[in-house]
Amino acid sequence: MTTALRAGIRRGLTEFGISLRTPGDVLFIIIGLVIVAVVLWLNRDAEFAPGAPLGWYVVPSVLTIQLLFIATYGLATVIVTEREDGTLMRARSLPSGLRVYAVGVTTRTLAEIACTVLPTLVIAAIILGGDLGLDALGVLQVLAMLALGTVALTPFGFVVGTVFRNPRAVGGWGFLVVGAVALVSGLFQPLSTLPAWVQPIGLVLPLYWIGHAMRSAFLPDEFGVVEIWGGWHVGLAFAIVAAWAVVGLVLAPRLLRRVARRETASGIEARRQAALQRA
């Protein structure tokens, strides 16, 4: 188990290093950061309440959305691509190969999140004059929830990656699925303002609680009134996300094994030919 863990971490960091040398991947990160900078700059003087800059509310929502898209949409794209090129089938044939693969993609996802979140915080601090509303405990809370949230959201990425057959499908339907999850989780507007039938869905999913913990780190205590049940419930948020993380640790290897068992050389070749025709 320890050997597989070390091998998976090495694999994930190696793949992350390769992605940093890939112009398309770097450009994707830069465009995202530019969009964040523009949004914060345009709202730099706005307040969502007296004495509370709008940026304090925008930044935790941006961080949560970044986490969602990297851990689900981005991960699903990687899995579908590596199903198509035979990487997943080759991993199945190696000792502890699928375990190493699962650790590797999770490590890569964590590295990608760090590479996106840290520049976002730096940009936000510069535009907002260094005042993000965070204290030392808030910083630890954000970092802890980012790590825990990554593990909790990973199963969604594996599910999307196993349902769709090619990267183009993930780019279409997968994007819509991820966007719908964000919508019902209160990332675009407070969950308490959404229809009553939507609220239980948001409360069951981990994403609302990830955003809840993020917002509680940035916002003053009195602004918890806009949340469900009228206050901050950070302990409950960590408990629910931790439960989803445990589910993720159990489900991820099983989902990979199930998909890998269905992969055959002839099936991979057929998808490869179909991809060439699409190109």
TrEMBL record:
What GO cellular-component annotations does this UniProt entry give?
A: plasma membrane
Membrane topology, as annotated: Multi-pass membrane protein
> A Gene Ontology MF term for this entry?
ABC-type transporter activity
Source domain of life is: Bacteria
Q: Give its localization.
A: Cell membrane; Membrane
- Domain ABC transmembrane type-2, chain residue ranges per copy: 24-259
Q: Give the matching InterPro entries.
A: ABC-2_transporter (IPR052902), ABC2_TM (IPR013525), ABC2_TM_bact-type (IPR047817)
Keywords per UniProt: Cell membrane, Membrane, Transmembrane, Transmembrane helix, Transport
Transmembrane ranges, per UniProt, are: 26-42, 54-80, 100-128, 140-164, 170-187, 231-252
Q: Which family does it belong to?
A: Belongs to the ABC-2 integral membrane protein family.
Q: What is this protein called?
A: Transport permease protein
Which organism does this record belong to? Agromyces agglutinans
